[in-house]
Automatic annotation (TrEMBL):
The keyword Transmembrane applies. Keywords: Membrane, Transmembrane, Transmembrane helix. The chain crosses the membrane at residues 33-53. This is CTP synthetase. It comes from Sinisalibacter lacisalsi. It comes from the Bacteria. The keyword Transmembrane helix applies.
Amino acid sequence: MGLFLLVYIFVGATLAGSFMVAALTAGYATMMPIIYSSIAGFIVAIPAAWFIAKKIRENA
């Protein structure tokens, strides 16, 4: 669980930032689309972090 949380911190911030940049690039410059895209990035990061942590544990 500790490894998952550590990976989630980095993956969540990276995906949230990427989704936010994508929203801004698409022309959504108001507050709500930026917030929604950031939340979507953090939600998508949950299974991604779980998968990455699982792969790290298998190779360790």
